[in-house]
């Protein structure tokens, strides 16, 4: 069973500046990490291969330093990985991102199953996985809680709806997006890290993809544009109420009235 896991390198802090012109995050010089939701996807893939055999590969889109998250998946147990990197990919919205990843997947080969994390912590759209599946023309299931069985070319799984969990049977190949806290991701192996090889990670640029129309990628290929983005304002103003119970109650009441909260 060949499984591909989509991962992303995200800022390791929420204190990230925003480019006022393009509206995208300034990632240069910012400490990064693997998207936390993707760890559940990796663990699900590795567990399936342990049960049914096969191989796990990872793919990411980002700057060259995104190689670090691919290497982390290899240290967790993946066999190899691919980085899609090119300045033409920069500034992509969910649509252009999904299209670029789908082109990269086609370049990598065929897979029985593609697994994504539920969403990313820097975008939180939870749309890329479903859109990748649409571009690839395969079935997609989101909010997957567990993969229960693989049998006769079908995937038996449990997924979460708003008010209930459902059991589904999905024909392979398919793409699934794992929910959070559905398993316990294993730790990367330090021993494996010491034996990483250059050939374990492949780099694909715009020129390597089959579709070489630049209008399909990056900012120019994005159907949506950011109108305005800004970090939330920090308010550390404090109001300390003192006195006996009656005095504190009255002062609190008057404060709430002043703010028109009561």
Features:
262 residues; two-stranded antiparallel sheet; alpha/beta; 11 strands; 9-stranded mixed sheet
The level of helicity is 25-40%
What's the β-strand tally? 11
State the secondary-structure class.
alpha/beta
C-alpha Rg, in Å? 22 Å
- Order of strands in the sheet with the most strands? 9-8-7-10-6-1-4-5-11
Gross geometry? globular
Quote the distance from N terminus to C terminus: 60 Å
Describe what this molecule looks like in 3D.
This protein has about 260 residues and is of the alpha/beta class. Helix content is about 25%, strand content about 25%. The protein is built from six helices and eleven strands. The chain has helices spanning about 35-50, 65-75, 95-110, 130-135, 190-195, 245-260; strands at about 1-5, 10, 30-35, 55-60, 80-85, 115, 140-150, 155-160, 165-170, 175-180, 200-205. A nine-stranded mixed β-sheet has the order 9-8-7-10-6-1-4-5-11, sandwiched between helices. The protein has a two-stranded antiparallel sheet with strand order 2-3. The longest helix is centred in the first third of the chain and has 17 residues, at about 35-50. The chain starts with a strand and ends with a helix. About 35% of the residues are buried.
Task: Summarize this structure briefly.
The chain is of the alpha/beta class. It is 26% helix and 24% strand.
Task: Please give the structural blueprint.
Blueprint: E1 2-6, E2 9-11, E3 32-34, H1 36-52, E4 55-61, H2 67-76, E5 80-84, H3 94-108, E6 113-117, H4 128-136, E7 139-151, E8 154-160, E9 165-171, E10 174-178, H5 190-193, E11 201-204, H6 245-258
Parallel strand pairs: 1-4, 1-6, 4-5, 5-11, 6-10, 7-10
Antiparallel strand pairs: 2-3, 7-8, 8-9
């Amino acid at each position: 069973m060949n499984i591909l896991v989509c991962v992303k390198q995200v800022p390791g802090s929420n204190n990230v500046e925003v480019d006022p012109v393009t509206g995208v995050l300034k990632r240069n010089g910012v400490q990064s990490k693997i998207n936390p939701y993707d760890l559940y996807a990796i663990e699900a893939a590795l567990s399936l291969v342990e049960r049914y055999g096969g191989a796990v590969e990872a793919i990411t889109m980002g700057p060259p330093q995104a190689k670090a998250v691919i290497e982390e998946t290899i240290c967790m147990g993946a066999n190899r990985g691919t980085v899609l990197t090119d300045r033409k990919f920069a500034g992509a919205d969910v649509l252009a991102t999904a299209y670029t990843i789908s082109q990269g997947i086609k370049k990598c080969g065929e897979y029985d199953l593609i697994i994504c994390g539920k969403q990313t912590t820097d975008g939180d759209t939870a749309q890329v996985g479903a859109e990748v599946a649409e571009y690839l023309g395969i079935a997609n299931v989101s909010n997957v809680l567990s993969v229960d069985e693989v049998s006769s070319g079908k995937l038996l799984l449990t997924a979460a709806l708003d008010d209930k969990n459902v059991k589904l049977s999905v024909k392979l190949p398919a793409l699934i997006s794992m929910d959070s806290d559905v398993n316990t991701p294993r730790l990367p192996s330090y021993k494996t890290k010491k034996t990483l090889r250059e050939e374990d990670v492949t780099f694909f640029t715009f020129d390597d993809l089959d579709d070489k129309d630049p209008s399909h990628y990056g900012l120019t290929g994005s159907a949506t544009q950011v109108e305005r983005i800004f970090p939330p304002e920090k308010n550390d103003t404090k109001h300390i109420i003192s006195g006996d119970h009656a005095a504190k109650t009255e002062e609190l009441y008057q404060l709430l009235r002043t703010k028109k909260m009561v």
